[in-house]
Amino acid sequence: MNPIYAAMPTTVFEAMSARARAAGAINLGQGFPDGNGPDAVRAAAARALDHRSNQYPPMAGIPELRQAVADFYRDTQQLDLDPGEVIVTSGATEALAAALLALIAPGDEVLMYQPLYDAYLPLVRRAGGVARLVRLTPPDWRIDPAALAAAAGPRTRLLLLNNPLNPSGSMLGTDALAAIARFCVERDVVAICDEVWEQVVFDGAVHVPLMALPGMRDRTVKIGSAGKMFALTGWKVGWMCAAPPIASVLAKAHQFLTFTTPPNLQYAVAEGLATQRDWISAQSAAFERSRDRLAGGLNAIGLATVPSAATYFLSVDLERSGIAIDDVAFCDWIIDHAGVAAIPISAFYSEDPVRHLVRFCFAKVDATLDEAVARLGRAVPALKATAG
Ligand code: PMP
Fold first, then answer.
1. What's 211's DSSP letter?
2. Domain 3-30+279-381 belongs in CATH node 1.20.120.10
3. pTM of the model
């Protein structure tokens, strides 16, 4: 057995979801939305399943989807991608694995920010990379260019970045992206930028792709996910975009991971990217209302929240809420005593964790959010009385 996997505990998402099921708790832990995505996209998938080929599609994706991704990013992010620079994958998860396997040579150092999306560290290590971690902290999760430079070593070849960032719900501004771009250019570092949350952004913000920054066009792998864009997280259709010399190596890694992705889902996503842009905007406005509903409800029962600019998540700050136990203990307690499941933010750190934040998913119908708040409102005063 490979020790990286053999020694790995079950992910906190699975563990919390299992406990939520067993306890009959409302699951605001794992990040999947209520709802079933755009009708037109599901109908297109059903049509393609019945009327188009179900045999191996082209390895890098059907031409219609590669073109649709390039068109979408041209119109929404002013990127000038050729469809040949887009490789379709089975979700962003496969894109991450393919990119890391393709670009890491044994012993290469990979810079990453904590909090870390849970797949990053095992994938980097399994690919033979050496992680170099830079710690971000609430409430602003600000990037310090000096910390990045200090973490880099002589063998730093890659930076793996997630923007907008899960679990914090924060987004990097243009100044921070410019500092990262300068660093990558000066140190000749390639960036893998996981931008799966690019369309789930709030308050009128516009996502800026790292690839658009000076010097980054030919040294960035941009990763996207249809599951996030259409709120269809089970679909597992994603892509990676990169200049031809990088894309050709990425394609070789993808070739022996999954080779292809179900063709009917590819046709449906291509159609959705062309025709469902209003749906995507309306959905993000709906998530913004859900964020405000959950934040308002939590604040009203004395749970202080950290601002969330993107993603399906917001965090409660236990310290500012007057709760004296840590995030893991709080999540354990609210499952048992309130019947609500959430995720401790410390689970996203590999070292020196932040222990006073708890992540809640707000991509749920109003009634579910309201019931979760009501349950917490009944239970939490007892916790504050005993632990405070
Ligand atoms: N990266 C990040 C930061 C994510 O939050 C997620 C999904 N939660 C993924 C990648 C995985 O995306 P997909 O479902 O398309 O594989």
1. G
2. no
3. 0.97
